[in-house]
Amino acid sequence: MLQTAKEILKDAREKRYAVPGFNCVVDVMVRGILDRAERLRAPVFLMLLAAEIEEKTWWYHPVVVRAVAERYTIPIVMHLDHATELDDIRAALDNGFTSVMFDGSSLPFDKNVEMTQKTVELAQSYGASVEGELGLVGGYDLGGETTASNVLTQPNDVATFVERTGVDLLAVSIGNAHGIYEQLPKLDIPLLKELNAASKVPLVLHGGSGTPQDQIRDAVENGICKFNVYADSRVAMWNRIKKIAAETQRSDPAPNDCFTQLREALGDLVEEKTVLAGAVGRV
Questions:
Q1: Choice among 11, 27, 81, 141 that is catalytic
Q2: CATH of 5-277 among 3.60.15.10, 3.40.630.30, 3.40.50.1100, 3.20.20.70
Q3: What pairs with residue 45 in β-bridges?
Q4: What tens digit of pLDDT does each residue of 242-267 get?
Q5: What number is the average pLDDT over the span 153-176?
Q6: Is-above-0.85 flag for pTM?
Q7: Is 168 a residue of the active site?
Q8: Of 100, 99, 80, 69, which is closest to residue 2 (Cα–Cα)?
């Protein structure tokens, strides 16, 4: 069943667990994620990255998610990730997304506030939640290119940003990064504690792929209520594709044989991250 981010993260913050968010682009991924989350009785975010949207994406992705969500009994948030244009946000809301993110992290503070506030005003008319970002999470984009260096979130800015924008959740920069890490990150947990104390809304960690499990646990214990996963999903599926190719004896394997294994590989990752988040059995 579809719900908003605000609805499910309130409980997560009160009880100190997190809800993992998984980027997905095709129905194989949607089913792989939801089937395992349902088995685990865990809430989940299905996220679509704005950079991966093509015209036909609007015809398929939200239609598929809306159609299948009612068949599951767990809370599902359909979330637009890292949008930088209001047109994309409006299109997502028109297509039934229950949560959207405006990423103004590369903008000056006041411009970030202005654009995030406009997003909140728009989303409220649809009953949807809004994620903002304060500070800058760098790393690598989908093409493997370096995006930017990290700019850590400043505690003194948090209360002002949340108050002026009205966001429902806030992504922060504490040493995390997007994509595959070249070296292990070291999350700044003391900074996170300050940010959590300053924020009235749940905090989000981007770049959850590849972050050591002990650091994720510390982050969840100290205020992170949602963490995002994508690179690890791609690695898991690619490794399974290579395994299928190496082991199959047929030149024309049945699609279901391939897709079932891909769903299982992704499901195993979903279970690993859900256990790590402390979200198992929260439904």
A1: 81
A2: 3.20.20.70
A3: 21, 77
A4: 998 888 888 888 888 888 999 999 99
A5: 92
A6: yes
A7: no
A8: 69
